[in-house]
Design goal:
The chain is mainly β. It is about 15% helix and about 50% strand. The strands form two sheets. Strands 1, 2, 3, 4, 5, 6, 7, 9, 10, 11 and 12 form an eleven-stranded antiparallel sheet that branches. The longest helix is centred in the last third of the chain and has 10 residues, at about 145-155. It is globular, with a radius of gyration of 17 Å. The termini are far apart.
């Protein structure tokens, strides 16, 4: 297995080759990892704090972490219970979760996406998101546009969108949760609905 070290401003990403054709975005408490088809990326992320929420049928964990480059990002993972599933496409889900005005899709492959999300106050947030299956959604935000451009380059992404340079970057550990989860969002938008296999009963 070949290992290639890439320095990303100066975020260190580790790329390895594998035989899978899939995508996965996860955080295990120590490393933030991304796999897109044959490429795997991982970076150390020091966990600063964790917040957990239960919205009845949807369970949310929000981790704020400091990357090797020194910048702070937030990783969120939402999981439904066995009887429910996510109702919206990933771009629509991100727009609803962040109560955004608009969203630019920069990259999409194997249900992994990179977005620039324009919030209601016209500030911009870089987001990488993964729809794992009908019952699990994860995403990370707070990266600089330079970091996002580097990631797009390593993914060999082709985009006609011009990236906005002035984006939200977290300077400290406070106010790093920008998602707008609520009971109304989860059950009345709705973000989740009863699983399709139950509808035939």
């Amino acid at each position: 297995m070949n290992l290639i070290k890439i320095y990303l401003l100066p975020l260190v990403l580790l790329i390895t080759l594998s035989g899978c054709s899939t995508a996965n975005l996860s955080y295990n408490g120590e490393q933030l990892a991304l796999q897109v088809d044959k490429q795997q990326f991982s970076v150390n992320g020091e966990l600063l704090y964790t917040h957990k929420s239960d919205y009845t049928n949807l369970y949310l964990q929000q981790d704020t972490l400091r990357l090797d480059a020194g910048n702070i990002v937030t990783y969120e993972e939402a999981t439904t219970d066995i009887n429910f599933e996510f109702n919206l496409a990933v771009n629509r889900a991100m727009k609803a979760i962040f109560d955004a005005k608009d969203i630019k899709i920069l990259y999409s492959k194997s249900f992994f996406f990179i977005f620039q999300v324009i919030l209601k106050d016209n500030s911009v947030l870089n987001i990488a998101a993964q729809q794992h299956d009908d019952q699990r959604l994860s995403f990370v935000y707070g990266m600089s546009t330079s970091q996002t451009e580097q990631l797009l380059t390593h993914l060999d992404a082709q985009t006609d969108e011009k990236l906005i340079k002035d984006v939200i970057i977290f300077k400290n550990e406070k106010n790093t949760i920008l998602s707008k989860w609520s009971v109304e969002l989860v059950h009345f938008t709705p973000i989740i609905t009863p699983a399709r296999y139950l509808q035939g009963r």
